[in-house]
Design brief:
The chain has 428 residues and is an alpha/beta fold. The chain has 12 helices and 12 strands.
Length: 428
């Protein structure tokens, strides 16, 4: 880093020489890991370009129509791009899917029917899915309300899927097995593509009709393959995470087998209409362009997560994953040990933002969560977690979850500011 940059950060932007030098040392120790991440990024960038060219994307696809949205060429082309990119037969990509939980709910309710059994094989799902499944809340139209039973298989001690136990609990009622790729608010590594492939082989050997579902949030472009290229039947995710590239204003996607996507489309709109209707409200251009730059954007976030891991490892903190471990999502968890440290870290991330940097995040009772949650995110797109952000449930052992950064430099600045905020309060 040049002397000019150092002077700007230390003289004008509130970074002490001590914190600056510590992060710079960590950066020098992870260059090999950065190179590996760059290789994955390059592959995925050319993969996306190849798909755009094969789908013959033109300026016509950036327009939109009104009313029912019949025969919208932009929407149809975008869904063709997603299907080809994920190696599937069909896809739904809509700005009206409000978040990742909504996309996952459509996937689950589209595939499952009363009397079916769902098994989550990656332990407890993300907090916002508890009410969807029926683990919390009553009379809300959950899977349990509709007579769908639920089982959960905990992960092995090393964080891998317990295939032996999974094989034992699969029953004649089992209709779907679900994998949550990202860590959520857990202390584990993300599930890799190789592990998903082994899970698919296990499930299909038990009963080929069982549907393997994958929550792909935070995982897109972390490998040279996606879960549906490794045996998953359907996956779902959010456009304000990885695949939106920081440009998509809202939305979600679901991609998979044609027959399953058709059933899911009937839950998205209504039986008999499915995916044939639905406006894009002029968002096609940003969804296309966001997807095109997504591999590079994700790369910056991945490298920022690696840097954070190394910088806090060097201070003696427990991190997950470690800087040298293979990654399958963009999330980095740090065990900070106290609510004060978590709050200070998040204040630093907020202070690093281009938007609302003057705002101070505080823990609050966020809908869908069991504990108070603090969220730091000064983003151009509200709630976008491909942009620099950090969040944490205020519960022991007080783990903070860091992700995003539209560029590596911004993600790195988040590391600097988070450490500086803790240093200022005597918490490092």
């Amino acid at each position: 880093m040049s002397n000019n940059t150092e002077r700007l950060l230390t003289e004008s932007m509130g970074i002490s020489k001590k914190v600056y030098d510590h992060v710079l040392t960590a950066e020098s120790q992870v260059t090999d890991y950065f190179a590996a991440a760059d290789d994955i990024m390059a592959y995925n960038q050319y993969k996306v370009l190849d798909v755009f060219q094969k789908c013959r994307i033109t300026d016509m696809h950036f327009g939109w129509n009104t009313g029912y949205g019949y025969n919208d060429p932009g929407r149809e082309a975008l869904e063709k791009v997603y299907a080809m990119l994920f190696g599937t037969e069909a896809a739904l990509v809509r700005p009206t899917i409000v978040n990742g939980t909504h996309a996952l709910t459509l996937m689950l309710t589209g595939v499952l029917r009363p009397g079916d059994e769902l098994i989550y094989c990656t332990g407890s799902p993300y907090d916002t899915l508890w009410e969807v499944i029926g683990l919390r809340g009553e009379g809300m139209g959950s899977l349990t309300d509709f007579g769908i039973t639920y089982k959960q298989v905990e992960l092995n001690y090393d964080g891998s899927i317990d295939l032996e136990t999974l094989a034992k609990v699969i029953s004649p009622k089992t209709r779907a097995v679900a994998v949550q790729r990202a860590t959520g608010y857990g202390w584990r590594k993300a599930i890799t593509i190789d592990e998903i492939k082994k899970c698919a082989e296990c499930v299909k050997s038990m009963d080929p009709s069982i549907v393997l579902l994958v929550d792909n949030c935070y995982g897109e472009f972390l490998d040279t393959k996606e879960p549906t290229e490794a045996g998953a039947d359907v996956l779902a995710g959010s456009l304000i995470k990885n695949p939106g590239g920081g440009l998509a204003l809202a939305g979600g996607y679901i991609a998979g087998r044609q027959d399953l996507i058709e059933k899911i489309s009937y839950r998205m709109t209504s039986p008999g209409i499915g995916g044939e209707c639905g406006l894009t409200f002029g968002q096609s251009r940003t969804m296309f362009q966001g997807l095109f730059i997504a591999p590079k954007t994700v790369n910056g976030a991945v490298k920022g997560a690696i840097l954070l891991a190394k910088a806090f490892e060097n201070l003696g903190y427990e991190v997950c994953p470690r800087a040298d471990e293979k990654r399958s999502d963009i999330i980095e968890a740090v065990k900070l040990g106290s609510p004060e440290a978590v709050i200070a870290f998040c204040e630093g991330i907020q202070a690093a933002a281009p938007v609302d940097s003057h705002v101070r995040p505080v823990p609050w009772e966020m809908p869908g969560y069991e504990d108070q949650v603090i969220m730091a995110a000064g983003a151009f797109i509200q709630g976008s977690s491909i942009e620099l952000s950090a969040d944490a449930p205020i519960r022991e052992p007080y783990i903070v979850y860091f992700q995003g950064g539209l560029t590596y430099e911004h993600s790195k600045f988040g590391v600097l500011k988070a450490m500086q905020a803790m240093e200022d309060k005597g918490l490092l």
